[in-house]
Amino acid sequence: MAQAALRRFSGEALIEEAGPTGMVTLRGTLRSGAILSAVQGAVGLRVPEVRRAESGPRGSVLWMSPDELMLICEAGEAAGIAAGITERLAGEHFLALDLSSARSRFRISGAGAREVLAKGAPVDLAPRAFGPGDLRRTRLGSVAVAFWCTGPDMFELICFRSVADHVYEWLCLAARPGGRVHLY
Amino acid sequence: MLLIHCPYCDETLPELEFAHAGEAHVARPENPSAQSDAEWEEFLFIRRNVKGPHYERWRHTHGCGRFFNAVRDTVSDRFLATYPAGAPRPSLASLTGESE
Ligand SMILES: [Zn+2]
């Protein structure tokens, strides 16, 4: 299948479609040794604390709820990772599923990035309140999203694919030149 | 805008992320088929409609997705407590410092 060109928009912040991304949902008792070692084996990362994301060269792990993680990896790796975890956790009570097709991923970066998100999400995005590794599942405008801070003024965001066009256009509108409030 | 503490996310967050889900601690009958029509009506529809501190369910819909319980004063809209589903209900005396 031909891959459509990835969209990007440069305004008060840079809005980029991240394109195909591997995403594996993992549910279970997050603090159990079995899950900790399964996550370590799959992407080489620790299980994140509440409202946090762990990132490394092989991907990211997002805290989604008290019993749910999202593993972010290269497109095409997700099925293998889900199968590997399923094998490793045999006998445990858990769920590992390749849900790469369910969601879309975006990058928001630049000096205006915090304000772009703050225009639509009920989250304190001041640098002292939301820094690298911090994550929120929340809403942007009227739809559910999750976003996390990957560096100074750099964020990644995922939303359901069915609303991805809307979210992209929403982000571009919020980032239109001249739209800075200079709150942060 | 109400600010609500999610006991799972352990953060106080705007009402926009939450959905109200009715009275809490309504016990489901252990043997539904043995219920009379009047008992079913009581279980399904009859609520206390409290004026004052009210035990109620909320869901962190646009967040962790979890249901939890809260005590909210229906007169002032002030939240006295939130606690995880399954946890025992806190006594009103412990929340208000008054005797029930
Ligand atoms: Zn929550």
Distance between the termini of chain B: 29 Å
In the CATH hierarchy, the architecture of the largest domain in chain A is 2-Layer Sandwich
Contiguous runs where pLDDT drops below 50 for at least 5 residues of chain B = none
Looking at CATH, the homologous superfamily of the largest domain in chain A is: Probable tRNA modification gtpase trme, domain 1
Question: What is the C-alpha radius of gyration of chain B, as a whole number of Å?
Answer: 15 Å
Q: What structural class do the secondary elements of chain A suggest?
A: alpha+beta
Write down how many β-strands of chain A occur, each being a DSSP E stretch of 2 or more residues.
11
Average pLDDT, all residues of chain B: 93
Pattern of helices and strands of chain B: EEEHEEEH
Report the sheet-strand fraction of chain B.
25-35%
Oligomer: heterodimer
Task: Give the largest interface.
Answer: A-B, 11 and 14 residues
N-end to C-end Cα span of chain A: 42 Å
The helix content of chain B, as a percent range, equals 10-25%
Largest sheet entry of chain B? 4 strands, antiparallel
User: What is the overall silhouette of chain A?
Assistant: globular
CATH uppermost class of the largest domain in chain A: Alpha Beta
Bound molecules: zinc ion
